[in-house]
Write a structure and sequence with these properties.
The chain has 336 residues and is of the alpha+beta class. The chain has 3 domains: 16-102, no CATH class; 118-229, Lipocalin (Beta Barrel), CATH 2.40.128; 242-303, no CATH class. Helix content is 29%, strand content 23%.
């Protein structure tokens, strides 16, 4: 069967690296560096900036400079606010003065690690509608338990976090709404605050504007169904969770959040019959965070039904890029 594919596209852009400082002068210098580097070296600049929005960008630059003057300790967030104007997840702020992994602490900003008997808590809370329990998300698992007048969210497993590290503090506002303290694991990083809320009679907890978790039951299939189908009340608009579903008898829909894992391949394999039984397929990769070529191989079987030519990568040649590439070569950071 021939399938019509609508690919909601995604751009490939180089990441900008800067040093993020804490003083007003240093942060303003960093910001000026970001503005100049994006204008000179960012391949998509002239596509993203035009006569219709150049005034908005100028206003944003002035507003950010004012924010930096008032709160230089939030420098990284303001620089990131500027890059978000371009709506490109391959353009961002990364500090290059430290090794990321070496700066991960063994204990979060909560101040201590906490051991929890997961099996006992699961048995006691699997039918509860409160916040205590074992919770599963797309990228991590948590256990939440009461500690005095608040609740503590402890990591079971996660991509970066280790077991027993405390990631969240939930302070009750009422039975279903909580003030949330999100602790940091990176040295010199600060906590940030948001909200969390319970939904579906305590089966789902949302971290507002971020992600969601489902309460672990005795059925893995049931838990995954809830996690995949529940639509967040407080989404962040960045498509942070994957979706595979049929929109009609004629159309199947896939939302792929990244290609850093086997997610896309697994989705296609799992839903192959459903996809192939419908003439239309929507592949939504908006705000996708990129990844590696092997992780879209199953999608390629649908999109490309005949042999195709693959060309290499093109680099946007600017003075700044050439200087950085020469520096990398001198330091032995470039192979081949």
């Amino acid at each position: 069967m021939k399938i019509k594919v609508l690919l909601i596209s995604f751009l490939y852009i180089i990441v900008t690296k800067v040093v993020v400082s804490q003083t007003i002068t240093d942060c303003l210098n960093d910001f000026d560096f970001v503005v100049a580097t994006i204008k000179d070296d960012y391949p998509g600049y002239h596509d993203k900036v035009n006569d219709d929005n150049i005034s908005k960008l100028t206003i944003l630059e002035n507003e950010i400079r004012q924010k930096i003057t008032k709160q230089p300790d939030s420098c990284w967030f303001y620089l990131s606010e500027y890059t978000r104007f371009f709506k490109d997840f391959h353009l961002g702020i990364i500090s290059h003065q430290t090794n990321y992994k070496s700066d991960l602490m063994e204990v979060s900003t909560y101040g201590k690690n906490v051991y929890v008997n997961i099996d006992s808590l699961h048995q006691a809370t699997k039918n509860s509608n409160g916040i205590e329990g074992v919770w599963e998300g797309y990228r991590e698992k948590l256990v939440i338990f009461k500690d005095d007048q608040k609740y503590i969210g402890v990591v079971i497993n996660s991509f970066i976090w280790k077991s027993n590290q405390v990631k969240y503090e939930f302070i009750p506002v009422n039975d279903t709404l909580f003030e949330l303290i999100n602790h940091a694991l990176l040295k010199d990083s600060k906590i940030f605050k948001t909200k969390a809320s319970l939904h579906l009679d305590g089966k789902v907890i949302e971290i507002h504007d971020n992600t969601k978790f489902v309460r672990k039951s005795d059925s893995e299939i049931y838990d995954k169904a809830i996690l995949s189908s529940y639509c967040q009340t407080f989404p962040n608009g960045r498509n942070v969770f994957p979706v595979a579903m049929y929109l009609s008898d004629n159309t199947f829909y896939l939302r792929i959040t990244d290609f850093n894992s086997s997610l896309a391949n697994d989705f296609v394999k799992k839903h192959w019959d459903e996809i192939m039984s419908r003439p239309n397929l929507i592949i939504d990769i908006r705000n996708n965070r990129g990844g590696q070529d092997p992780y879209y191989s199953e999608l390629a079987k649908i999109i490309y039904t005949k042999p195709f030519e693959r060309k290499g990568v093109e680099w946007y040649a600017t003075k700044g890029r050439i200087e950085r590439k020469e520096s990398d070569i001198e330091k032995g950071n470039v192979s081949g």
